């Protein structure tokens, strides 16, 4: 279980896998270039995570945007069955070094991220924040510099340590990088004249992707999102889905909060009716959420996590 954020304002906050930015005018390198992609206006945005519905092709990725001076989002496509959607990383360029919030899902894809950063700045990657311990964010972490500092919540460190020590791990699997710098609730970094606040949440904001709740504490997710919404923030960046204009991302965070509430309510209704998990999966009606990306694959897991919470079966640290 990851910690809910504290209220307050900071020049730059990384709240993960929500990458949460309170943007400011902190100093950045003079040679930091502009965005490689200009964000659309709110009226132009199609509210979907499907890249092809938005008119993109595979050749349009990776997609990099400069969200604030020296602060970039990086979106790369990944597959889940027949569906394609984006995994989002973020990086902050300072005159002392680069902080990266989340890698990608393979050494090859993370290497592309590292190469993209090298094309923007000659500053080294010095800090890596493990926002999500899931493999689609960490499997390529061995591509980051070995001398970088890796930060994580203690729960994520335990997950990655278990993966590294798993005797059944394939011999040809990429190395697991286990973070050694732990953040229980919140930590402030000073890097290149910028103050960066680290706050950890669970994977509680996906832009138009059905709630991925395989490690969720469902009702606590709602409280975490509401705590994030109470912060004085300019731009919320999701862990998956498109990085849209700030006003859209704020709207979509509320839409996602409502989606989590709806999933909990529907699963709770089925649980109260005495349905087994298998019956609940077959009977669940999520309305418009069934048109969101990954509904078919994520809904059974989400219902299962709500059932676990209702039954008092969720693991506690």
Report on this structure.
This protein is about 30% helix and about 20% strand. The chain is an alpha/beta fold. The strands form three sheets. A seven-stranded mixed β-sheet has the order 3-4-5-6-7-8-9. A three-stranded mixed β-sheet has the order 1-11-10, with no helix packed on it. A hairpin with a 2-residue loop joins strand 4 and strand 5 (about 85-95). Helix 5 packs across helix 7 and helix 6 (about 275-285) packs across helix 7 (about 295-310). The radius of gyration is 19 Å and the shape is globular. The N and C termini lie close together (about 5 Å).
Strand-helix topology:
Layout (H helix, E strand, L loop, with lengths): L11 E5 L2 E3 L41 E6 L2 E10 L2 E11 L4 E4 L5 H14 L4 E5 L5 H4 L10 E4 L1 H12 L15 E2 L3 E6 L2 E7 L17 H12 L5 E3 L8 H27 L4 H7 L11 H16 L7
Parallel strand pairs: 1-11, 6-7, 7-8, 8-9
Antiparallel strand pairs: 2-12, 3-4, 4-5, 5-6, 10-11
Helix pairs in contact: 4-5, 5-7, 6-7
Summarize the structure.
The chain has 317 residues and is α/β, with parallel strands linked by helices.
What overall form do the CA principal axes indicate? Answer: globular
Helix content: 25-40%
Task: Look at the helices and sheets and give the structural class.
Answer: alpha/beta
Largest sheet, spatial ordering of strands: 3-4-5-6-7-8-9
Strand content: 15-25%
Mean pLDDT figure: 88
Assembly status: single chain
């Amino acid at each position: 279980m990851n910690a809910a954020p504290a209220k307050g304002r900071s020049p730059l906050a990384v709240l993960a896998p929500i990458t949460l930015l309170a943007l400011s005018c902190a100093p950045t390198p003079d040679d930091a270039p502009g965005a490689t992609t200009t964000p659309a206006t709110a009226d132009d945005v199609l509210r979907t995570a499907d890249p092809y519905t938005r008119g993109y092709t595979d050749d349009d990725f990776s997609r990099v945007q400069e969200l604030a001076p020296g602060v970039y989002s990086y979106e790369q496509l990944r597959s889940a069955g027949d569906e394609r959607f984006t995994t989002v990383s973020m990086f902050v360029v300072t005159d002392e070094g680069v902080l990266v919030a989340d890698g990608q899902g393979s050494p090859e894809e993370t290497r592309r991220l590292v190469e993209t950063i090298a094309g923007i700045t000659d500053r080294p990657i010095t800090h890596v924040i493990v926002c999500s311990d899931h493999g689609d964010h960490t499997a390529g972490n061995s591509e980051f510099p070995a001398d970088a500092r890796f930060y994580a919540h203690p729960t994520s460190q335990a997950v990655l340590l278990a993966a590294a020590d798993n005797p059944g791990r394939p011999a040809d699997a990429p190395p697991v990088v286990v973070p050694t710098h732990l953040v229980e609730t919140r930590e402030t970094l000073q890097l290149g004249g910028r103050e960066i606040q680290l706050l950890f949440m669970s994977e509680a904001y996906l832009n138009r992707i059905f709630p991925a709740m395989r490690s969720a504490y469902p009702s606590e997710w709602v409280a975490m999102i509401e705590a994030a919404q109470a912060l004085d923030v300019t731009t919320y960046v999701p862990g998956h889905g498109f990085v849209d204009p700030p006003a859209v991302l704020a709207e979509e965070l509320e839409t996602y909060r409502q989606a989590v509430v709806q999933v909990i309510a529907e699963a709770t209704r089925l649980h109260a009716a005495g349905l087994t998990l298998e019956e609940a999966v077959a009977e669940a009606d999520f309305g418009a959420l069934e048109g969101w990306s990954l509904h078919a694959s994520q809904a059974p897991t989400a219902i299962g996590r709500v059932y676990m919470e209702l039954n008092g079966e969720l693991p506690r640290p």
